[in-house]
Design goal:
The chain is of the alpha/beta class. Among the domains are: 49-208 and 300-433, 3-Layer(aba) Sandwich (Rossmann fold), CATH 3.40.50.150; 211-295, no CATH class. The protein contains 17 helices and 26 strands. The strands form 7 sheets. Strands 1-22-2-19-18-3-6-8-7-17 form a 10-stranded mixed beta sheet, sandwiched between helices. Helix 11 (362-374) runs parallel beside helix 12. It is globular. The chain starts with 9 loop residues before the first helix and ends in a 6-residue tail after the last helix.
């Protein structure tokens, strides 16, 4: 079990005790021992099974939709994608008490004495794993509302580090008044954490100017186009920025009290020579800097995200209605524009995006839309459960809503008005998690499971297992990745031919010792299966 200290070595226990002694006593505490153990937390190995019938497009697949408990999926991704995800966005259950949060196959209601503790335990396990998946320049965005925002902030501070908190953004989810409460509820939050804030600050993108922001560029220049004037002062006192400036009319200017000029004198003189200093229409005013609209690449994102810029809940509902012709079970879906804003800030054209509370598939929709706009090759991994319960055992939101929406956006669909909407193109492999008992793994794991995992570990697009092939093959740059399910004369000859051609091979096999003995000078090319997968999978995250 993930919290079983019997599994720790002496060195691990000592390290844990020393860390605990150094930890401050202030922080978030919840009743972990009192609540029912989460059934998803176990020692089972997790494999993935690919369903070609529910996949979109033809193999090899670049994108993944995983059906199953997201704790299982995250444990699997830790084996295959540790340190590979640039951007994570999640929209977890808000724990409103109104049948939005399922713990051990049962809804948690408002009267549950351990409602908040169950939610925190649920989120803690998943966020610990999510942190391991982030690349060094990675960032995570989490949507939340007032029900758990304060608990979530403390939880994320403990997992990602308080110093790694980038911002808490406010999303205006409503455009019309809400009068049911004492004070109308009009917003939600986005908590943003990065593994390395300095790298994120350097890497993050600016956002495009809005129409309102571009409208202030009212002046026209015959060559450079629209421009505006901005102040040439800065707060503070710097001796080399306190010089005197003489306007074209001869009026002398010095910085106002408590401020200095925003540049040293030589920089000012250069701007003046370039015609970039504005003294007002009469040439007598305080100097200001001319900024051309054509030079503005964007603006630094800020924490207020109004509905005019990123959409609102009603817009999101209409998007889903347009695709399906009716509303789905999701009461508060996110608009595509909101997720687009996140991706515009946090991703580059070749990045990998993960959403392990995928809901209606909005994240994949936004990825495809942004790729179509800027020619990018962003990829996505979505994880969604079926959300089946004992009362609704056949319910499958991953298959019927999430994957179906993404398929329609990729391939095209007819909207509610009867209009044909062109597809944005793209593919995905539809996968299901499968738990395999650790003590029978050597007998229960299938060749298809192994080949799928090896491809993902090595960053391959996902190809199907070819049953009648001698061995499974994928080329990774100058390296050929091979899985050898059995050893016979034909396999030995095929490997011998590849080595003779000076091919660089990475061979996974059940009996690597036999291959090492046969190809003595290529010993480092052979790795043991399933031991490599077991070692990478581990036993779950430790508390």
């Amino acid at each position: 079990m993930a919290d079983n200290y019997d599994d720790y070595s002496r060195e691990e226990l000592l390290r844990e005790l020393r860390l605990r002694d150094r930890r401050p006593r202030f922080g978030l505490v919840w009743e972990r021992k009192e609540i029912e153990h989460e059934q998803a937390v176990n020692n089972d190995f997790v494999a993935l099974e690919l369903d070609p019938a529910l996949s979109c497009g033809a193999a090899p697949y670049r994108n993944l939709i995983i059906e199953g408990d997201n704790f299982d999926a995250l444990r699997y991704l830790r084996m295959t994608h540790t340190g590979k995800i640039q951007c994570i966005y999640i929209d977890p259950p808000y724990n409103t008490g109104n049948r939005d949060f399922i713990y051990n196959d049962r809804f948690v209601d408002k009267e549950d004495a351990y409602r908040h503790s169950k939610w925190l335990e649920f989120m803690y396990r998943r966020l610990l794993l999510a942190r391991e998946l982030l690349a060094e320049d990675g960032v995570i965005f989490v949507s939340i509302d007032d029900n758990e925002v304060f608990n979530l902030g403390l939880l994320m501070n403990s997992i990602f580090g308080e110093s790694n908190h980038i911002a808490t953004c406010i999303w205006q989810k409503r455009y019309s008044r809400e009068n049911r409460g004492s004070i109308g509820d009009a917003h939600e939050y986005l908590l943003i954490y990065a593994l390395n804030p300095e790298i994120f600050k350097y890497r993050r993108n600016k956002v495009a100017l809005t129409e309102k922001q571009t409208a202030v560029y009212k002046n026209d220049h015959p060559i450079h186009g629209k421009w505006r004037d901005i102040p040439m002062t800065a707060q503070g006192f710097r001796p080399n920025q306190m010089y005197e400036i003489v306007s074209p009319t001869g009026k002398k200017h010095r910085p106002p009290e408590g401020r200095c000029w925003s540049m040293i004198e030589s920089q000012y003189q250069k701007k003046l020579d370039e015609g970039r200093i504005f003294f007002g229409k009469d040439g007598n005013g305080t100097p200001r800097v001319i900024r051309y609209l054509s030079e503005v690449e964007g603006v630094v994102p800020w924490t207020w995200w109004p509905h005019e810029e990123v959409g609102h809940t009603d817009e999101a509902r209409k998007e889903i209605q347009s695709i399906f012709g009716t509303q789905t079970v999701f009461d508060t879906p996110k608009p595509v524009r909101l997720i687009e804003r996140i991706l515009r800030i946090a991703t580059k054209p070749d990045d990998l995006v993960l959403d392990f509370f995928a809901g209606s598939g909005t994240t994949a929709h936004a990825v495809m839309k942004l790729n179509a706009e800027d020619g990018g090759n962003r990829r996505y991994i979505l994880v969604s459960s079926t959300e089946a319960t004992t009362a609704e055992p056949t319910k499958n939101l991953c298959r019927d809503v999430c994957a179906e929406r993404v398929r329609r956006i990729a391939q095209g669909y007819t909207n509610k008005k009867g209009e044909n909407i062109a597809g944005l193109s793209g593919d995905f492999a539809y996968l299901r998690t499968q738990r395999l008992p650790a003590d029978t793994l050597f007998y229960s794991i299938q060749h298809e499971h192994i080949w799928l995992a090896l491809q993902l570990i090595h960053g391959s697009d996902l190809s199907l297992y070819v049953t009648d092939a001698l061995m499974q093959r994928s080329e990774q740059g100058d390296t050929i990745l091979l899985y050898v399910p059995r050893i016979n004369e034909a396999i030995l000859q095929a490997l011998s031919d590849l080595f003779a051609a000076n091919a660089k091979l990475l061979v996974y096999a059940w009996q690597p010792g036999l291959l090492q003995h046969h190809f003595g000078n290529q010993r480092d090319s052979f790795l043991p299966i399933p031991q490599v997968l077991i070692d990478r999978f581990g036993t779950g995250s430790k508390p």
